[in-house]
Write a structure and sequence with these properties.
Bound molecules: zinc ion
Strand content: 15-25%
Number of domains: 1
Strand order of the largest sheet: 1-2
Order of helices and strands: EEHHH
Radius of gyration: 28 Å
Helix content: 40-55%
Number of strands: 2
Largest sheet: 2 strands, antiparallel
Length: 128
């Protein structure tokens, strides 16, 4: 199963985050829920939580609703902190392959460093 937000194959967790924007006499509320990977959980949580904390509580109803959203967002977020975080993907390589790649790079560097007498420019003639 892949993340419902980014589509990557990774360890997933079901989360629900709510956001409120208080506009004094009215409010705009939205939510995000689904099986998300750890990076998407972090991103969604912090985006929605910062909106809650800054513009969430402006209004009478919002002053009651927003603290509840902030708390429930934390309830969903805290267990996600203990999830495995690594994305198994083409970018992750076993250690042996990394070492071999490093050795190959070093070898290329060594051959580049060897002085080749044919490469040297001929000495410039002095003008009289
Ligand atoms: Zn994701």
């Amino acid at each position: 199963m892949s993340c419902e937000k980014c589509g990557r194959d990774a360890p997933l967790r079901y989360v629900e985050f709510n956001q409120n924007v208080g506009l004094l006499v009215m409010r705009i509320s939205s939510s995000a829920h689904g099986y998300y990977c750890k990076p998407c959980i972090h991103e969604t949580f912090w985006t929605m939580q910062m909106i809650n904390l800054t513009v969430g509580w402006w209004g009478i109803v919002s002053m009651i609703v927003t603290p509840a959203y902030v708390l429930t967002n934390f309830v969903h977020y805290i267990p996600a902190l203990f999830m495995a975080s690594k994305h198994p993907g083409p970018r992750s390589r076993p250690k042996a392959k990394k070492k071999a790649a490093r050795r190959r790079r070093e070898r290329v560097y060594e051959t580049d460093a060897v002085d080749d007498p044919d490469d040297e420019e001929p000495p410039k003639r002095r003008r009289k």
